[in-house]
Structure formats: structure tokens, C-alpha cells
Amino acid sequence: MREGTATLIRRADYVAPIFWIRTVDLCFDLDPAKTLVASKMRLERNAAVPHGPLRLHGEELNLLRVLIDGESVSFRQEGHELIIDNVPDADFTLEIRNTCAPEKNTALSGLYTSGGSFFTQCEAEGFRRITYFLDRPDVMAVYTVTLRADKARYPVLLSNGNLVETATLDNGRHLAKWHDPFPKPSYLFALVAGDLVAREQRIRTRGGKDHLLQVYVRQGDLEKTEHAMNSLIASVVWDEARFKLPLDLERFMVVGVSDFNMGAMENKGLNIFNTSALLASPATATDADFHRIESIVAHEYFHNWTGNRVTCRDWFQLSLKEGLTVFRDQEFSQDMAATPSARAVCRIEDVRALRARQFPEDAGAMAHSVRPDEYVEINNFYTATVYEKGSEVVRMYQTLVGRDGFAKGMALYFERHDGQAVTCDDFAQAIADANPGSALSTRLDAFKRWYSQAGTPRLRARGAYDAAAQTFTLTLKQTTPATPGQDRKLPQVIPVALGLLARDGQALPLMLQGEDGAAGATETERVLVLDQAEQSFVFVNVPSEPVPSLLRGFSAPVVLDDGLGDAELLVLLTHDSDAFNRWEASQRLALNRILGAVRTGQPLVLDAAYLEAMRAVLRHPELDPAFKALALQLPDEAYIAEQLDVVDPQAVHAAVEAAQTQLASALQADWAWAYDTHQVTAGYSPDPVQSGKRALVNLSLAMLVLNATRSGDGVWPGRAYQRFKDATNMTDRMGALSALVNAQAELADSALARFHAQFKGEALVIDKWFALQGRAAERDGKTFARVKQLMKHPDFTLKNPNRARSLIFSLAMFNPAAFHRADAAGYVFWADQVLALDAINPQVAGRLARVMDRWTALAEPYRSAAREAIARVAAKPDLSNDVREIVQRALA
Ligand code: 0A1
Ligand code: ZN
């Protein structure tokens, strides 16, 4: 990393490999200090490209020998390449021996140790830190892997595929040999060796095949794997039912590891998970954790087809597998949610996350398209754009060709490309070809701009009602702001799902001018496709002036300006049949008020109309508690900041705090009612009904404690403390604890101390303890001071990514008011931590560096102080590529 020069890799420069590696036999003698790797590969020239030397990737390796067809050959090492100039024309065998040092590998890429066991992480370019190889996704080989290790310390030896041999060796060692029949790119290779135990489940799938599912964890964690196993079984069933994609392996293994850079990894047949994305019990995990685990287990499982059976030609195509797989896991979660209302809650949560993370990314220094054009460090491109916006792009295909049409397109994609490494264009073509004449196929080239243009399109919608003609003309205009390196944008294809509501809330028919009676006459929802910079649509037979409900279900990842005022938003909030737009109306009502206060610099005073509307939502006899909790929650500060050209994070925070306080006091009796009437009495289950009630109870409690603390009343804080102590599940316990901490109630400190004492053996719970304090609502600099103090806590370490994230990222990413300080101390802290982390784990450091993406939008004095901090990081001579790319882009 450091000794190599940072080169810019461009998508346009792609060339196919000069050699293919068809098979590889790997032999590992596992030792934490020095592991010996012997690799024997069968290579073949790629006849389609001109000859050249063989160049293998290798990093942080100690090379012992190189043989071709059993004879030693001369080679060169240049930077991170091993170059062999003279290789036979025909197929040949290449043998390489090298060592690596797993216990020194704090970057957690390649082969490393964690808690005394061995794990690998090879995506994107970690395999080259294990042995020399053509470490690129378009080189796919059949792997046979032999693992040798001390039997007492490493009784479990796992790799991809099927176990074909085990044996006991001398000196207390043993051996396991694995064979994976599916050719795969090196990034999907995995091995695990350690003292682990497994939960096992045998299943018979629809096709009548038997499979063994295993979840491996450390002794003592077994009872926390039930939910993951259930999620895995549900994922297998769902993929077979929805997309006819069966499990293609006899044995499917999942392993948990507590040191991991990301959530999880889809290695073929051997998924490796961050324990935070795998382990759950009611006592240690919240409803949100259960939900997240279900979706990540599903995500990794779904990669078995979208990513593994069909993989990416190069890393620019990352969204081919990630956008598609996120879309699949989102669809799965919605289907698991079962009721329409619970489905809507899933969608709202996904869109909230997109707006809080991807919209700022699309507007900042790191803005890039879903299929980027260039990168220095690919690890920096596992982004919200590639994942979440990528998923929205896939969702638009489905919107344009329909659910069945999309399923047909997926079938054609696998028919054409199973076993291949392909591009986003190949995917687009398959969906279009399976749906000739569809709204997609007729605009495919324009649609593909979603892959090439960065930035979030602005969609402006204005309606004009002609009472005499009974027509409603809807004019849609789109523009996409310039982003780094892309000044001019072309119109995109934007599916706009919509309905029209009468003022009394009734849904109106949607017939367009020129349509004969049938189409649209009775429909109350339809999809318009905007593919020009500006287009008008004329609806006929509209009996009264309608309120348009646009972009239903968030049908495209755009910023909508519909010009609706309070009166119209209230109609939507009360009557829209689309739950997403009902929620959206609640957020817009709050957003308008908060932005008004921030822009004018006036203190925020919530009006009676707004408060009454919120009371009506809270007291509504039919709305789902989960929906109520979302509608009554104020917009994220990050999302609010995105609406402003110049951001003063303290002003945003002050307005949100004021809104929160007023909502808490004006609705005090209603919160108390909600708290009392939504208690869950049944045994714990993370299902949507129970978790929805808990969400509303926790929000109510937070409001009640906030209000009481402000007015010096001790009753609700006392109740919260009692609830915290008596809680029988982590959701209730954390809810009560965060209510106390966020209100800075007097009881907060003793609750925190008690929590720590109670859970000191549970790393994932201690992470929560740090995170809660890092995210605590800021007042008088107390949260920031506490975080600095906690950095010295004996449980804190930068070496474990979960722990580092729990405290530092909580502050810097999720607590703008505590982080953006007029005295610049937040930025100084950020720079110090980026540099400290970079020496340990560049990927994690790179993530933290991203916090400053939007610094140019900051008001003074934040802006200058932020620039100074970024410049200080950039000036460090031996930065990793990861951090250097981020800070250089920020300063460009
Ligand atoms: N492909 C995984 C995410 C992942 C990416 C990179 C990693 O290490 C650098 C680890 C995991 C997924 O989408 O789940
Ligand atoms: Zn993924």
C-alpha cells in the first residue's frame, strides 16, 4: 500500500487478462506468526489478447520460490507485481511458495487472526495479500484448498465448497481438504480455522435437494445464532419462490468474527460475518439489530446468484452485484414484513437511509456515478451510491417493466451469463431484451445515464387546474446539478408513480388526454415516465382541483419540489393511500418549519396547525404504531443540512432541539397516552407488530423524559430509570437509557454505569454503550467532552473496527452538533483519529475521512477550520491510498 505509487485506475482502460487461471491448489500451513502458502495453478494464455509477460499481484508477502512446469524460472518483482517474462505458449503449471504474517495483519484484508482464530477477507483485493495471483474478478478458477494446523487450537478448518478429506498429522496437527466445484474469482475465496462451534440445520428445498446449513461462532455465542439461522432458511425459501434461484451447494456455511471491516462477506459457500451482523438474543440485541441481521444474512445469501454465479468483470461494475443484491434484500425484507403497513415502514426506512447517506455523498467531494469511471483505491467505492442508489436503479427497472417483466429479465440474465464475469450493460440489456416494447426497452440508452451521471436529479412539478375544461396539467422539469468532473448532465429517465386526490381525500381517476376510455379511467395510481428535460401531462375528467401525490413509494431517487403548501400536505398526510407519501408529508411539514427558522435566524415556534396534525397522527385509531413513530420523528439533521446552500450545523441543531422540545411539551398528554397504551405484554419477538409498538413507546418515553427534565419534574425520569432496570429485552432497555442520556437527566450517569457493569462481558453490547454516548444529544459541549474521556476507557481500542466505529464514528458521523464546534476541537479530534487509524487499518480510516466530504457547504468558522484539518491529514507523507484519495478529493 504505502510503498506503491497511487495510480488512478480508469474504467475505459479495461483490458482482458493475458492469462486465465483455470485451477488452483492451495496448501496452507497455518501459523499466526508465519503462515506458509503453497499454490499450484494451471494457466492458459488468453488467445483473444496480444502476448505479454505474466504479471501477478502480491502485497506484504515473502516469496520463497517460483516454478513453471516443475522448473525454476527467472522473475522480477516491481512494486506490488511479480513479473515472469518467459512463459510457455501452451498451458502450463505455475507453482509458488510464500509466507505471510496473519497476526500482524491489522488491516483485516487478506489472512488475519481474530480472537485466536484465522479468517480471510479477500474482497476487493485481499487475495494478493495471501499469495501471488491474478487478483481480478474476471479470472475465475476452480479451487482445491488444503488446510493444516494445530488440532487443539484450530479444531475447525473451513474453506469454500465441499469437504473432501480430513486427516490427523504428526505433532498434534491435522488437515482438511476442500474442493469448490464452481469456478470463482479470487475475491470469493475464504478460509476459517479456529475453535468454533456450529448451529446446524438440514433443509430440503422445493427441488427436493437436501442441504446442510451451518452457523459457526465462538463457544458461548451459540444461543445467539437462532435468528440468523431462521433468516438464512427464510432467504433460501424466498429466493426460490420469488426468482426461482435455488441453493446450489450441499453445504452452506456462515461464520462470525468480531474483527471485521464491513457487515459481512459473500464468499462462495462460506459467508463471513461481522458478529454485529450475526448474533442476536432479546437480552443483547435491539429490534433494529434483529432487522439488520435478517437483511444482511439475506443479502449475503442472495449474492450466491447475484455476484457469485454471475460476477463482475471489473470493480467499476461493483453495483452490478451490490445494487442488485441490495434491491433483492430490500424486497425480501418487505415480503417478510407481510402487512402493507409494515412493508411501507421498510420502504420509509430505506429511503431515509438513502437520503441521509447517499444524497450528501452525491452532493459532496466524493460524488461518483453508480458505475464509477475512475478510482485510486477500490475500497473507497463501497459506497451508498454503489449500494443504495444502485438498488434504486434496479428498482426503477422493475417499476418500468413490472414485477413479472423484471422476473423474466432476471431469468434471461442468468440464462445468458451464468458462470461469467459481466458488466452493468449486460444486465440492462437482459432486462430490456426480456421486455421488448416496454417503457424501458424503448429508452434503454437514456435509462443507462443512471449508471454514468453522478448527482441527485431535481424534479420540479407544478400543476394547473382548468375548472372549465376539467383538466389538470402536470408539468415536470428535471435538472441534475454539476458534480466533480461532470459539468453538464443529460435528462434521465424518471418513473413518477402518482395519484391525484380531491381535497376531501378521495382518489381521482387518472386518464390522460388522448387515451380512449379504458386506460386510466378507473386507475387511481399510475406511472408517468419523464425522459425529457421538461414534459407536460394533461389529465382529463378531473372533477375538482386535485392535490397531486407524486413519486409514490419514492419511485425514483430524486429530490422532488412539488410546490405544495401546508394545506395540501395536510390532505396527503390525512388521506393519501400511499403510506410513503403520508410519511413524506409529515416530514415536509416539519422540514419547512425547521428550514424557515434556520434561514431566517428566528427562534422556531411550532404553530397549532402542525401540532394538531401531529397529535392526530399520534392518536389515529388505525395507523400502525411503527408508522406513527416514523411520522413523528423529526428529519435527520444530515438531511436538513442537505436542503441548505450554506450549513451552520449548530443552527440546524438548535432548530431541531426547539422543535423536539415543543413537540414534547405540547403533546405531553398524548405521549403519556401512547406510552401507556402500546406496551407489549407478550413474550419478546422482533416481529413488525411488537417492534412497532416498542418504537412508539420508546419515542414517547424520550419525549416525556425530555419534557420532564426541562421542567424539573422527576416523575418520568424516575419511571424511565425503573423501566431501564426492569427491562426484559435490549430494545426497551436501550430506549429507556437513551431517553435519560439524551435528556441529560440526572439519573443518566448511574444508568450508564449500571449498564456497563451488567454487560461487561458482551462486546457487542459494550459497543452500544459507547455508541449511545457518542450520539447523545449535545448540550454545552458535554457530549464531546465525554467522548474524549471515553477514548481513554480501558474497554476502548482503535484496533477493533466495531469499537472504533462505536465511539468515533458515532460522534463524527451521527452527531453533527457535537462534532462541528466553533472552536474546531471536533475537527482536530477527527484528524488525529484518521491518522491514528490509518496506521492500523486504512479501510476504516478511509471511512472516517469521508466525514468531511461536505465541508465546502459549511458556514464559517466551520469551513476554514475543516479545511485546515483536512490539509493537516493530507500533508502526512505516508498516508494510505485509502485516506489520501479521500482527502485529496476533498481539497480538489
Ligand atoms: N461484498 C460485501 C461487502 C464487503 C466489501 C468489502 C469488504 O472488505 C473490504 C468486506 C465486505 C457485501 O456487499 O456484503
Ligand atoms: Zn453485497
Automatic annotation (TrEMBL):
<dbReference type="InterPro" id="IPR035414">
    <property type="entry name" value="Peptidase_M1_pepN_Ig-like"/>
</dbReference>
<keyword id="KW-0031">Aminopeptidase</keyword>
<dbReference type="GO" id="GO:0016285">
    <property type="term" value="F:alanyl aminopeptidase activity"/>
</dbReference>
<comment type="similarity">
    <text>Belongs to the peptidase M1 family.</text>
</comment>
<comment type="function">
    <text>Aminopeptidase N is involved in the degradation of intracellular peptides generated by protein breakdown during normal growth as well as in response to nutrient starvation.</text>
</comment>
<keyword id="KW-0862">Zinc</keyword>
<dbReference type="InterPro" id="IPR014782">
    <property type="entry name" value="Peptidase_M1_dom"/>
</dbReference>
<dbReference type="InterPro" id="IPR042097">
    <property type="entry name" value="Aminopeptidase_N-like_N_sf"/>
</dbReference>
<dbReference type="Pfam" id="PF01433">
    <property type="entry name" value="Peptidase_M1"/>
</dbReference>
<dbReference type="InterPro" id="IPR024601">
    <property type="entry name" value="Peptidase_M1_pepN_C"/>
</dbReference>
<dbReference type="GO" id="GO:0008237">
    <property type="term" value="F:metallopeptidase activity"/>
</dbReference>
<feature type="domain" description="Peptidase M1 alanyl aminopeptidase Ig-like fold">
    <location>
        <begin position="455"/>
        <end position="561"/>
    </location>
</feature>
<dbReference type="GO" id="GO:0008270">
    <property type="term" value="F:zinc ion binding"/>
</dbReference>
<feature type="domain" description="Peptidase M1 alanyl aminopeptidase C-terminal">
    <location>
        <begin position="566"/>
        <end position="892"/>
    </location>
</feature>
<keyword id="KW-0479">Metal-binding</keyword>
<dbReference type="InterPro" id="IPR027268">
    <property type="entry name" value="Peptidase_M4/M1_CTD_sf"/>
</dbReference>
<protein>
    <recommendedName>
        <fullName>Aminopeptidase N</fullName>
        <ecNumber>3.4.11.2</ecNumber>
    </recommendedName>
</protein>
<feature type="domain" description="Peptidase M1 membrane alanine aminopeptidase">
    <location>
        <begin position="228"/>
        <end position="435"/>
    </location>
</feature>
<dbReference type="InterPro" id="IPR045357">
    <property type="entry name" value="Aminopeptidase_N-like_N"/>
</dbReference>
<dbReference type="Pfam" id="PF11940">
    <property type="entry name" value="DUF3458"/>
</dbReference>
<dbReference type="Pfam" id="PF17432">
    <property type="entry name" value="DUF3458_C"/>
</dbReference>
<dbReference type="InterPro" id="IPR012779">
    <property type="entry name" value="Peptidase_M1_pepN"/>
</dbReference>
<feature type="domain" description="Aminopeptidase N-like N-terminal">
    <location>
        <begin position="26"/>
        <end position="188"/>
    </location>
</feature>
<dbReference type="InterPro" id="IPR038438">
    <property type="entry name" value="PepN_Ig-like_sf"/>
</dbReference>
<keyword id="KW-0378">Hydrolase</keyword>
<keyword id="KW-0645">Protease</keyword>
<dbReference type="Pfam" id="PF17900">
    <property type="entry name" value="Peptidase_M1_N"/>
</dbReference>
<dbReference type="GO" id="GO:0006508">
    <property type="term" value="P:proteolysis"/>
</dbReference>
<keyword id="KW-0482">Metalloprotease</keyword>
<dbReference type="InterPro" id="IPR037144">
    <property type="entry name" value="Peptidase_M1_pepN_C_sf"/>
</dbReference>
<dbReference type="InterPro" id="IPR001930">
    <property type="entry name" value="Peptidase_M1"/>
</dbReference>
